[in-house]
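Subject: Re: docking follow-up (zinc ion)

Dear J.,

Thanks for your patience while I sorted out the input files. As discussed at Tuesday's group meeting, I've set up the holo structure prediction with zinc ion included as the bound ligand rather than trying to dock it afterwards. The sequence and the ligand SMILES I used are pasted below, so you can double-check that they match what you have on your end before we go further.
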Amino acid sequence: MSATKQKSYALQVVLVIFLIALAFLVQKVINDANPHEMTSISLGDKTAVAGSGNDVGNTSGKGNGSQSKAHIAEYNPYLTDLAVAPDWSRLDEYQYTISKEDFELELDEVYTIDAEWRKWIEIGDESALIRTSAEDPSKQLELFFASEVKQEKPAKYWRARDELDVKDATKPLFGINIVIDPGHIGGDYAEIEERDFVHNELPPVKEGDLTLKVAKLLAVQLEALGADVKLTREYLGPVNRNRSEDYSDFAKHKMNTQNSLISPDSLKRMSDKLFYRAGEIKERAKIVNNEFCPDLVLCLHFNAGAESVDLIEEEHFHMIMNGAYMSSEVARDDQRFTMLERILQRIHPEEARLTAYAANVFAAETGLQPYLYETESKRALNVDNNPYLWARNLAANRSYMCPVLFYEPYLMNGKDSHERILQGDYPGMRYLNGMLRPSIFREYVDSVTKGLVNYYSIRK
Ligand SMILES: [Zn+2]
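The structure tokens for the complex came back this morning:
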């Protein structure tokens, strides 16, 4: 072999090695970029929150003392627990954006259950005078209504269906930013958050585990249809970095102000609740509203019937949209502010249209009967005479500043659902309770998907 030939041979060997190395590298990048692989979905899977980096929530689902805790506001009787006083000047972004008729109609028909709100909001011909402080009645803000002469667009991060472009007709959810919020925490926290159901010697059913399982399957499916999907949590642990003990000062302050008896038990119960409910939802809302800024949030839950030792025959389904604020809730400065922000962003009309599609498909796919609140209920309002649609003021559907689809199907302690849950996820159909059935998880996922596809495939 001549020297030149030897050189070119050596060069070829180097080139081949380089190409093999490159091929490995590309494969690794593809694998890494595809975290929602079906095979990797299991209840114990503990990955970071999608798209938010590792600084959000802990990845192990347990103690994370090394990360900084979230700031806890002082107890304030005029605010919801853990809330901070709102910056009312932000409502100036909505001057001249809503007509007097729409504003009044939403307050009367959707957002409140009685006329008490008029104590806080005085409607004039051209503007509304809004009380901004429960503590100081003299503090007010004037909000001007839109008119034929002046009509501005409200500021918001989410887009309604008609504001989305269709770029790929084969992918009906193309370009839609969706956040999936698997309700509750699950895992080791299921007991503390009172979201575990144990029947006889059977394995416990934990709502936070079930919702995560549905969320992961759903993410794969929605992404395949073109949506950009993120999860508020991808592990069986809290997003909130604080723990119960971090809230004990707040709890003490609150109980002292209310003159209630403080015992180790009552203090623990209140601290626990602040940790897993108010604190947890507050942290999720921060990520959703400040980082993800989605077009809609899907809040996934499993319902439970009245407590009983035995499994119950009942099964039902309903969906909840934000509304039906009680007078004590309108009286809280932060809730009154958020309610107004939702009204001014025109969230309800889009949320109601979306929820109607979602609920109709879900009911048809699952055959579940509607859950009916008592007609005299002070916490729920029926929406549009659809038995599946209810307005309620929940922390989760209030705090995400965009349309929220809040699902409440199946009873974890219902005979049929309980058996289906214990079967776990499986492909295809199984003969169960006298019928061929898909897994309860896939039925949930497919029903949510079809509802969204039905709604978004009718785009301008
Ligand atoms: Zn729930």
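A couple of observations from a first look. The first strand starts at residue 121 and ends at 123. Confidence is low (pLDDT under 50) at residues 25-66.

Let me know if you'd like me to rerun anything.

Best regards,
T.
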